[in-house]
Design goal:
This protein is of the alpha/beta class. It has a domain at 233-288: Alpha-Beta Plaits. It is 35% helix and 29% strand. It is built from eleven helices and 13 strands. It has helices at 49-56, 77-80, 98-108, 113-126, 142-154, 172-187, 199-205, 223-231, 243-248, 269-278, 293-304, and strands at residues 5-18, 21-34, 38-42, 64-69, 83-86, 160-164, 191-195, 208-213, 216-222, 234-239, 252-256, 259-264, 282-288. The strands form three sheets. Strands 5-6-7-3-8-9 form a six-stranded mixed sheet, sandwiched between helices. Helix 6 links the parallel strand 6 (160-164) and strand 7 (191-195). The radius of gyration is 24 Å and the shape is globular. The two termini are 38 Å apart. The mean pLDDT is 88.
Length: 310
């Protein structure tokens, strides 16, 4: 089956009942992820991110709606072969060495013995675990387990890579490695669904994002568009005037090296420019203010009034 989308969900919902209490884990999720893009799924704890992933992997069944992976139902075993998955808390078999575990995963994914040996060797180098490949996994640190689990997700050369908190437990170098791997996979045409609480990584890597709060989709779109549109402010970079002089005019300003950046309502653009230039300022640049993805996240959660769920 051919489709332009790697992932499609239509009214996807999942409800649970605990005793007499009804829990809405996901409600009416409709979104699409294009082939070859890096798509970020954001939200506080209990927002529905893990539920969405489990539905895409056919680990749980939806209460309503549907999900498609490359045009196929998650129940389709052939469709699942195209997916590589890194769970938030990976638990590879701890009495195998890293190399043995990856070799087992490679054979289970359908690679021949010769193909498995080559692929495992490549991945051990790629995730920085070649020197520890003959140590049993129970002796690995959390970061080492995360690296082996990342190789595990990649072993079958997936068309869709689902990463749930992939930098959890990693140091600075490990995080950099994951970012580089994601960019490499995108260049190969792999579609990546990326869930993370480390918002700078999401902002740097993702083409588009969706924000879930309380099981509902709050916002989605291209990162660049969301950050500009949500800011609803303008920034003017000026020189030949001091920070103090601008503040004395009642303007919101901050130092930026030898220049000063002034932030204001777009509706007052002409008024503010006239005011600054009248005071001797020279305007170097005028652009929409860039909103922080972290601030977008915080504002969306705050405005919905939904508490974080365990």
């Amino acid at each position: 089956m051919t489709t332009d989308f790697a992932i499609e969900t239509r009214g996807l919902s999942k409800h649970y009942r605990v005793g007499r209490r009804a829990i809405i884990a996901l409600e009416g999720l409709t979104l699409s992820v294009a082939r070859g893009e890096v798509f970020g799924l954001l939200g506080p704890n209990g927002a529905g991110k893990s539920t969405t992933i489990k539905l895409l992997l056919d680990l749980i069944k939806p209460t309503a709606g549907e999900a498609l992976v490359f045009g196929r139902s998650p129940r389709d075993s052939e469709g699942r072969r195209t997916i590589g998955f890194l769970p938030e808390n990976p638990a590879p078999y701890e009495y195998l060495t890293g190399e043995e575990f990856l070799s087992l995963a490679a054979r289970l994914s359908g690679l021949s013995a010769a193909e498995s040996k080559t692929r495992v060797g490549e991945l051990l180098v790629r995730v920085g675990m070649a020197k520890a490949s003959n140590i049993i996994i129970r002796r690995y640190s959390k970061g080492m387990v995360q690296r082996i689990a990342l190789a595990w997700a990649l072993v079958g050369k997936p068309s869709l890579l689902i990463l749930d908190e992939p930098t959890s437990g990693l140091d600075v170098l490990g995080r950099q490695l994951v970012r580089e791997l994601i960019l490499e996979e995108r260049q190969r045409g792999t579609t990546i669904l990326f869930c993370s609480h480390i918002i700078p990584d999401v902002e740097r890597l993702c083409d588009r994002v969706a924000l879930l709060v309380g099981g509902k989709l709050i916002k989605q779109g291209q990162v660049s568009e969301l950050l500009v549109s949500e800011g609803a402010l303008m920034e003017a970079t000026v020189e030949s005037i001091t920070l103090e002089a601008l503040k004395a005019l009642g303007l919101e300003a901050r130092a930026a090296g030898s220049r000063v950046v002034v932030c204001f309502d777009p509706a007052k653009t002409q008024e503010v420019l006239t005011q600054m230039m009248g005071a001797g300022a020279r305007v170097c640049e005028l652009t929409p203010a860039r909103y922080s993805l972290e601030q977008l996240f915080v504002d969306a959660v705050t405005h919905t009034g939904v508490e974080e769920r365990p």
